[in-house]
Amino acid sequence: MSREPQDPSAPPGAGDGAGGGPPPDSPPQADGDGAHMVRADLLTGVVLLVLGVAVVWMSWEMPRLEVRRIHPATVPGLVPGLLGIALAICGAILAARSVRVARDGAGWRRFGAAFLTTSAARVAVTMALALGYALVLVGWLPFWAASAVFVFVFIMLFERVFASSPHPLWRTVLTAGVQAIIVGVAVSVVFQTGFLVRLP
Amino acid sequence: MFEGLALLGDGVAHFLTLQSLFNVLWATLLGIIIGLLPGLTATMGVALLVTLTYPMAPDQAILSLMCIYVGAIYGGSRTAILLAIPGTPASAATTLDGNPLAMSGKGGLAMGLATTSSALGTLVGIVCLALLAPLLTEAALNFGSYEFFWLALFGVVISGRLTAFDDPIKGYVAGLLGLLVAMIGMEGLHGYRRFTFGMSPLGGGIDLIPAMVGAFGLAEILVVMKRKVSAQIFDASDRVVPRIKDVWKYRRTTVRSGVIGTFVGIVPGVGEDIGAWGSYAAAKRKSAEADRFGKGSLEGLIAAETGNSAAIPGSMIPTLTLALPGSAAAAVLIAAMYIHGIRPGPMLLVENAPFLYQVVAMLALATLAILVLGLALTRVLLRVMTVPRERLMPVVYVLCVVGSFAIAQRMFDVYVMLVFGIIGFFLREMRYPMAPLVMGIILGTLLDVNLRRGLALSNGDLTPFFTRPVSAVICGLVVLSILFSIPVIQRLVTRLFITDRGPQGGSG
């Protein structure tokens, strides 16, 4: 995401045989969010660098299986090690480039601000619901009930709390409740009797 | 040649049973619906449905999955036209001209032409598949470890290079992460368990299906729920079934886009979306009415829709002959084939020749089905599009959980789905493409085993990797595509061959 003079219409790859189309930059991107993306790239770059180095180290530590007299070029750590090196290089490039592109402090504020928007709250709620359902509800309640609770809470939260012009409360509760029970029961029945899955 | 035709006839006849036709109908319809709904993609549809097709006979299972794939890629066009958001990434190029057409009251015409173009595109691709796959198999039978190593690497690199949004390095990172995921678990040469951290379920490695359900299911749900407002549907009350003369008028565009789409499909891990962009760009260059592109050009719409559909049969060519997925959805299909005991690759034509032609027949039936369903069910499909995401996404997520659990009936796969979903979401937000990740996961083993086997065969000598003719060519391609993603070299080359290719970014 560097704002370097990169040509958006550069021919995609030399050896693709694809007839050379434009890059799939389908979602048009405002230049304004470049600053926080540069910070995100810096962070990911560092994480990737660390991950790459860790992988290299673990690959180096992997047994070479000398007792089994395997060919030294076929040790299990060979490919992961090479991949780790490549990942570390990519991470370093990503991080270095981000550092070079923007040095002012505004980027960090923008980066932090990206986590405080309504969109971020919507994502956080969805993620919490998804985790809560899969990690807590499933296994604690019977599967149909767990699914029904999840569907009900999901609809209620997004149609009441996050909606700009919500329907009357009783209507949302009623329709969400009906949908939740139908989904919970239908999925359980279909999978248990139709596909013979022993649900959690 | 005649043997091929006879096998093709057998393939079609094989599916002319009531049960098969029933499967074609429901699967294609479901595919179209999946494609229609923003946030549900072809890859996710195929990944989720693998579970449902588990109890079926192998041919019927793959038939259903293939119909979902074709249906979903087509279904996305409708959302692109009427909602101005692509139903699947494959119809991003369709949005450019499809939506202006709908705005000017020609939504019906646009939907009709999108349908016929998708069908014709698939047909062009099918012809190429039937002709090229046996030839490629012939060549691939001589491939050894050296060639397969390079092919696997090429698949990941080219996919990373071409699917990255604006930054090839992010494509490569996605590919590397995928390859590293594939390193988890028991390796194929000496049976050593890598990166398991003492967790026994990791010994078997990460299954592709739950990973895909996460990266394309949960991640997509998060993306959809992130958006604040939903889009407005445009009215489309004009005639839907297109006139023959409209279709005939753009025959050149159709054939050209079909061929481009097919060849983009053949490129490993580069699928329908790039097929559409490639055809669109080529059509714009050749068109007499280039200035209409992006403002409601029928030719642009036809090019995009033909291109993305042709990429499906195109992507099946490397998938079936080399076990090298031509697209992300094709990677899931490979996993499904393995589950059903079908081994794609050069030996497929030797061990199971009828299957190749059955795939051709499946694609032909799916094409017929999108033509019929797409033109007949306009109103019903419009109704589906209005299902609010608040109601739909929780149901989809329940299916994601059940779908990933059901394959091996263990919670471990649900955790895999969660991890891939959340990491996948953040990677998407930072504009990392998902296709190279998938390619990495599915090609990792091939790359690892063939590199080390090749080294063992040559006694540690690297030269065969560079001196065998096919190896040398693929190696050259890998090096070139990496070199071309370095800005300095890119600039140098453009300076050397200055052309008047003005900025022509896809988003108009």
Concise synopsis of the structure shown:
The complex is a heterodimer of chains A (200) and B (508). Chain A has helices spanning 34-61, 78-101, 106-113, 118-140, 143-161, 169-194. Chain A is mostly helical and 200 residues long.
Write the layout of secondary structure elements.
The complex is a heterodimer of chains A (200) and B (508).
Chain A: H1 34-61, H2 78-101, H3 106-113, H4 118-140, H5 143-161, H6 169-194
Helix pairs in contact in A: 1-2, 1-3, 4-5, 5-6
Chain B: H1 2-14, H2 18-36, H3 42-52, H4 58-83, H5 92-103, H6 107-140, H7 145-163, H8 168-183, E1 185-186, E2 193-194, H9 208-226, H10 244-249, H11 251-266, H12 272-286, H13 298-322, H14 328-339, H15 348-351, H16 353-376, H17 378-385, H18 389-408, H19 411-429, H20 435-457, H21 464-467, H22 469-483, H23 487-496
Antiparallel strand pairs in B: 1-2
Helix pairs in contact in B: 1-16, 2-4, 2-16, 3-4, 3-9, 3-14, 3-18, 4-5, 4-6, 4-13, 4-14, 4-16, 5-6, 5-13, 6-11, 6-13, 6-16, 7-8, 7-20, 7-22, 8-20, 9-18, 9-19, 11-12, 11-13, 12-13, 18-19
Mean pLDDT of chain B: 90
- Overall pLDDT score of chain A: 80
Number of H- or I-type helical stretches of chain A = 6
The gyration radius over C-alpha positions of chain B equals 22 Å
What is the SS-derived class of chain B? mainly alpha
Structural class of chain A: mainly alpha
Given as residue ranges, the uncertain stretches of chain A (5+ residues, pLDDT < 50) are 1-32
What do you see in this structure?
- The complex is a heterodimer of chains A (200) and B (508).
- With 200 residues, chain A is an all-alpha fold.
- Chain A folds into two domains: 33-114; 117-194, no CATH class.
- Chain A is built from six helices and no strands.
- Chain A has helices at 34-61, 78-101, 106-113, 118-140, 143-161, 169-194.
- The two termini of chain A are 43 Å apart.
- Chain B has 508 residues and is an all-alpha fold.
- Chain B has one domain.
- Chain B has helices at residues 2-14, 18-36, 42-52, 58-83, 92-103, 107-140, 145-163, 168-183, 208-226, 244-249, 251-266, 272-286, 298-322, 328-339, 348-351, 353-376, 378-385, 389-408, 411-429, 435-457, 464-467, 469-483, 487-496; strands at 185-186, 193-194.
- The longest helix of chain B is centred in the N-terminal third of the chain and has 34 residues, at 107-140.
- At the A-B interface, helix 1, helix 2, helix 4, helix 5 and helix 6 of A face helix 5, helix 7, helix 8, helix 9 and helix 11 of B.
